[in-house]
Amino acid sequence: MGSLSQISVMDLDKATTTSVTKRSPSPQQMDTQDTMHSNTMMQLDSLPTELLLHILQFLEVRYITQVVSRVCTFFNTIAKDEATWKIRIAKRWPGQYPAIPPPQPFDWTMACIVREEESKLWANISSDTTSITCSNAHYSSVDCIKVMDRLVVSGSRDRGINIWNVDQVLEGNPKPCLKVPDAHKGWVWSFSASGPQPGGDLDLVSGSWDNTVKFWRMTSSELRETRKPVNLKVAVLATDIHETKVVAGTYDKKVILMDTREDVNKMTFFKCHTKPVLAVKITDRQIISLSEDKYLVVYDRAAGKRFKKVLIPGHSFPMSMSWYGNALHVGDKSGHLHLLDTTNDAFEIVQQYHTGHSGKITSIVHGLGSLMTASSDGDIRVFHPTRNLDLMATIKNPDCGEAAQISYNDHILAGAFSNNTVKIWARN
Question: What is the pLDDT of residues 16-26, one digit of tens each?
Fold first, then answer.
């Protein structure tokens, strides 16, 4: 039997469909056949690159980059060539990808891996995922949710925060592993999670209608506050975190920037809206906010002032957003999406979409492999993350009520619903 890097070229033209009588070959014939066989053995790494790439089309990208690439130098060179995966993406999923031309460098290898896995996952959602509906997850509507590693944290109008262990849920235990019934004194309305921080002990930030922003350390068995809450004296409708900086959007039209290491007296207030602030996002350079006044406002952190103000077109005000790379998607009350190009701080609206939702877009999650929207119609829609925004799947959630928010991380999708329900999908 040949090695993994050899294939046998067979002459199939001489095959017939008629039955013949087989005779044992003579020694001379056997020597001749062995010589012919050795002459027709071809090293796989000696094939033309075009033919090899065609063969590799039948293998998963992750397998090629992690296993096949180790066979020989030639395979490794092909696997490391970004053009290999850029071309594969263009052939397999036609359309402009990413939706906005990405800045350099862009990891086409990882993009191809993620797109392949996401496309397979959502095209075969019934067979490739397990979904668990956690009915009566809270005593009232669930308004915010976050996937953090193998944990899901949910917040509700019952003022409580629950933590769900995904592995336990998938094993048939649809109950939270931890309940904190009085985490706030009002509706728990917003979550934001921090990334890994050396020496940091902050995992989660929550905003509530009790006017406070709270800071939490979270495990499957504990949810404890890491510092004194910040009372903003008005309902907190949105939060986001970047490193040690937290931004909050409030009902009284303000955007408030705070540092988790400093006293509450050292906060920066921005007031550029005329109606409640519904969504906020913070980066290392900027803060952006959405409001019922139909404007998206960009603040320059270094200058400490407003940088740009963009009117979101249409008759409905914006409600949700997701910023990935240099593409910013904004969802509005009528079920439409607006795509903004943020390259070189342009923040220009370049395209608008009708998502097919019959209700308002309450939540958006955008990544390398998909773009997801949740709506008050109860549905979750999964799109290809291209300029065309082609639909991959529609996830129906009967009897769950409105989808208030979704969160997606590492093939785990969680949804918060108005009918006191939390729903979790995980790849098999």
Answer: 444 434 445 55
